[in-house]
Write a structure and sequence with these properties.
- The chain is of the alpha+beta class and about 150 residues long.
- The chain has one domain (about 5-145).
- Helices cover about 20% and strands about 30% of the residues.
- It is built from three helices and six strands; from the N terminus they run E-E-H-E-E-E-E-H-H.
- It has helices at about 45-50, 120-135, 140-145; strands spanning about 5-10, 30-35, 70-80, 85-95, 95-105, 110-115.
- The strands form two sheets. Strands 3-4-5-6 form a four-stranded antiparallel beta sheet, covered by helices on one side. The protein has a two-stranded antiparallel sheet with strand order 1-2.
- The longest helix has 19 residues, at about 120-135.
- The protein starts with 5 loop residues before the first strand and ends in a 5-residue tail after the last helix.
């Protein structure tokens, strides 16, 4: 479950995190913290590892607002056919769902159909990049996603 304020940017190749856990965005990402929408902040490697990529940062991250509705977002592909990938998302607070929905992504246009928040769509897009990469990997690597 990624932090709901995390705007993923690039794949995170931190050598100290060689065997990362199963991650909510599929792969680890660098990116920006958007707690303050007027000023993006670039988290350090430890914060990216412990908070941004893993979510549930309410008590771990000094920037996380106590009154936030959700403290994590989880994604799952629930359909992939006819050029449309359907992603189910759940926003959670204290590991309990507070909101859920679906996002449909057109593989032909490379865009989401309908609307979601730009941050949610950015996280879903990062999740899709990881999903498509794993989908195209040889079967042996797909069975062991931490093998590199």
């Amino acid at each position: 479950m990624a932090c709901p304020y995390f705007q993923p940017k690039d794949r995170f190749d931190d050598k100290t995190w060689r065997k990362h856990p199963r991650l909510p965005l599929g792969d680890p990402y660098t990116g920006l913290c958007q707690v303050d929408p007027m000023r993006d902040w670039a988290p350090d490697a430890a914060t990216l590892r412990d908070c941004c990529n893993l979510g549930n940062a309410r008590k771990k991250c000094s920037r996380f607002p106590e009154d936030a509705v959700a403290d994590a977002v989880r994604f799952s592909v629930t359909g992939d056919e006819n050029g449309v990938v359907r992603i189910f998302f759940v926003r959670e607070r204290g590991q309990e769902p507070v909101e859920h929905g679906t996002l449909d992504y057109s593989t032909q246009s490379g865009e989401f159909l309908g609307g979601g928040s730009s941050r949610l769509e950015a996280q879903a897009r990062a999740y899709l990049v990881s999903y498509f990469r794993r989908k195209s990997e040889p079967e042996e690597t797909a069975k062991n996603p931490h093998r590199r």
